[in-house]
Amino acid sequence: MNNALDSRLSLTFNIGFDEKGDLKFQTRNFQNVKPSASDAEVYQTAIALSSLTKFELDKVERHNMYELNA
């Protein structure tokens, strides 16, 4: 059985352009997300957090850590 140990939320923002005209991105990580939280709940939290910044949200990622038992 797989046992969720931990979960992390990563938000990547488009913060503008560099001197060459390429897009620049910045990622913010949030640790200790409840492993039992649904993906929809985590996504809604990401949207709420992104509304507090002036930058455009580009990507939302959830990283889960599991203990694998044979």
**Residue share in helices?**
10-25%
Count up the helices: 1
Q: Topology as H/E string?
A: EEHE
**pLDDT under 50 segments (min length 5)?**
none
- Strand elements, count: 3
How many domains comprise the coordinates? 1
Mean residue pLDDT = 94
Query: For the report, how would you describe the main beta sheet?
Result: 3 strands, antiparallel
Domain DUF1659: 3-69
Pfam family, one: DUF1659
InterPro entries: DUF1659
Organism: Salipaludibacillus neizhouensis
What does the model show?
With 70 residues, the chain is α+β, with helices and mostly antiparallel strands. The protein has one domain. Helices cover 17% and strands 57% of the residues. The chain is built from one helix and three strands; from the N terminus they run ββαβ. The protein has a three-stranded antiparallel sheet, covered by helices on one side. The chain is elongated, with a radius of gyration of 15 Å.
Descriptive labels:
DUF1659 domain-containing protein; three-stranded antiparallel beta sheet; alpha+beta; 70 residues
Short description:
This protein has 70 residues and is α+β, with helices and mostly antiparallel strands. 17% of the residues lie in helices and 57% in strands.
Secondary-structure map:
Elements: E1 2-17, E2 23-33, H1 39-50, E3 56-68
Antiparallel strand pairs: 1-2, 1-3
InterPro entries: DUF1659 (IPR012454)
Protein name: DUF1659 domain-containing protein
Domain DUF1659: 3-69
